[in-house]
């Protein structure tokens, strides 16, 4: 997706070999026009699937999922990381390992929002080791729902998440895959 | 806003006198069609203002702000509650008191996203004591930006936030104001 890659090149900031800051348009400030282009592109990539629900995770997946959902005409459900008194007691939950924080955290979805009748598209902003996407897939499995696929805005192709998920047979569509990066240069997969 | 009030009556759940669960459409599952109607209504209510940026707070304000921003053609910035290695060191920050958790938490925005040239609209899902909205207003003040106003989806009119903000002279538009509630009944302000 050229518009996205141009945006990453022009407004992203690479820190060392692993950190890509895209806070100017994707996860702190949001470029809503870009998010619309991203939403349309996800719709194209999953056109042949009959999606009934989009699943994402707080916080930075929410805007992407909500804007994309306009093209799918389905509700969004976002998994919660932060415990809340307003969350149902009856939830599907699983542990996700955070490489940044070197520990597990729990993600939860109220059971009433995922059912055996659902065909779920998972959307998120980033994929590196793929742990969040795998955790979300587990919630879909726990509910007995079908997983239609996973859509990611930026995949760090030099980390293993994408490979693990593609080899598992799940349809994974990443709009920009970075094969390597260094301060001043980003190499996208063709 | 009739559509919203009907939705609250039909799909909201009142727990005791203070807790209103709207997880079916506003802050866990998201009804994106309703969010679009909400976004249009905010545009109507703030039509005479020249907004340059929408400011909200993670997590449940993000979808509302992103969808509404389509009608204003401006970027969204969401304040962070959770510390992140990807956040700039150079931030505006302030403390917000949480009545639920009975302690302060910090909210932060990278300085580069708010400037003296900005005219900011604050949007959020709920207002009760108003502490989050007041905290966001402080970030706007710290940046030297103008506050165009505050838009809230559901105001608990029986708590003091709305009154404090209106008396301070800030334009506050709440799409549904609840004057009292009990299990089985919700009284909206006319």
Short key terms for the protein model shown above:
homodimer; 190 residues; alpha/beta; 6-stranded mixed sheet; two-stranded antiparallel ribbon; 5 helices; 29% helix; globular
Describe this protein's structure:
- The structure is a homodimer of 190-residue chains.
- With 190 residues, chain A is an alpha/beta fold.
- The first copy, chain A, has helices at residues 2-11, 32-45, 61-72, 131-142, 161-167; strands spanning 13-15, 19-21, 29-30, 53-57, 76-79, 91-98, 103-110, 119-127, 146-156, 172-182, 185-188.
- The first copy, chain A, contains five helices and eleven strands.
- In chain A, the strands form three sheets. Chain A has a six-stranded mixed β-sheet, with helices on both faces. Chain A has a two-stranded antiparallel ribbon with strand order 1-2. A two-stranded antiparallel sheet of chain A has the order 6-7.
- In chain A, helix 2 (32-45) crosses helix 3.
- The mean pLDDT of chain A is 96.
What is the residue-mean pLDDT of chain A, rounded to a whole number? 96
- Oligomer state equals homodimer
Order of helices and strands of chain A: HEEEHEHEEEEHEHEE
Alpha carbon gyration radius of chain A: 16 Å
Cα-to-Cα separation, first versus last residue of chain A: 10 Å
Output the structural class of chain A. Answer: alpha/beta
The DSSP helix count of chain A reads: 5
Quantity of strands of chain A, as a count: 11
Largest interface: A-B, 38 and 38 residues
Task: Please summarize the sheet with the most strands of chain A.
Answer: 6 strands, mixed
Describe the strand arrangement of the main beta sheet of chain A, using strand numbers: 5-4-8-9-10-11
Percentage of residues in helical conformation of chain A:
25-40%
Question: What sort of overall outline of chain A do the alpha carbons produce when their principal axes are compared?
Answer: globular
Low-confidence stretches of chain A: none
Strand content of chain A: 35-45%
